[in-house]
Design a protein that fits this description.
heterodimer; A: about 110 residues; 11 strands; globular; B: about 110 residues; mainly beta; 6-stranded mixed sheet
Chain lengths: ~110, ~110
Amino acid sequence: DGGITQSPKYLFRKEGQNVTLSCEQNLNHDAMYWYRQDPGQGLRLIYYSQIVNDFQKGDIAEGYSVSREKKESFPLTVTSAQKNPTAFYLCASRSATALNTEAFFGQGTRLTVV
Amino acid sequence: GQNIDQPTEMTATEGAIVQINCTYQTSGFNGLFWYQQHAGEAPTFLSYNVLDGLEEKGRFSSFLSRSKGYSYLLLKELQMKDSASYLCAVTDTDKLIFGTGTRLQVFP
């Protein structure tokens, strides 16, 4: 079955540690996105990528980094520079050419930093 | 830059009709999406509009006016399971930007 997978579902880390969130898709989508969601809030764009080996900052990129070495994978690293990393992180993918197609989301990773 | 506004919360009664509004300002508009999100879950796609007018899909309809930067999602024959957040999202050039979401509570 085609889809987009995020792992792990829950993640706990100590303050000051970097942590990497996984996002893999087998939908053959070129575009991938990372969002952060805080309780009762909407989705805020962290980073996005339209093609392999290229990515752009979203609205809240500070304290985060990404890579896009393969079409299927778009991992997000939450660095120690991110002041408030505890949040729900969502990865999405969509076709970069068929603009009328929707974005598909992974199930999310809930990160808690203690 | 871009800006997307939605009401924060709405309430309605089971069986009724509710309209959730969304206004937006973007520099490069390529379409508008509506998503439903239940608490703690990923958003799921509801509708897409790129041309002016109404798109109907069962109990859900979505309207777009590009000249006014305005859209609404219309939910008919409300059911308890429709209690969720509804997110308006706009494609701005190659970005997909979401509004803050509208939390809808349906009461019996």
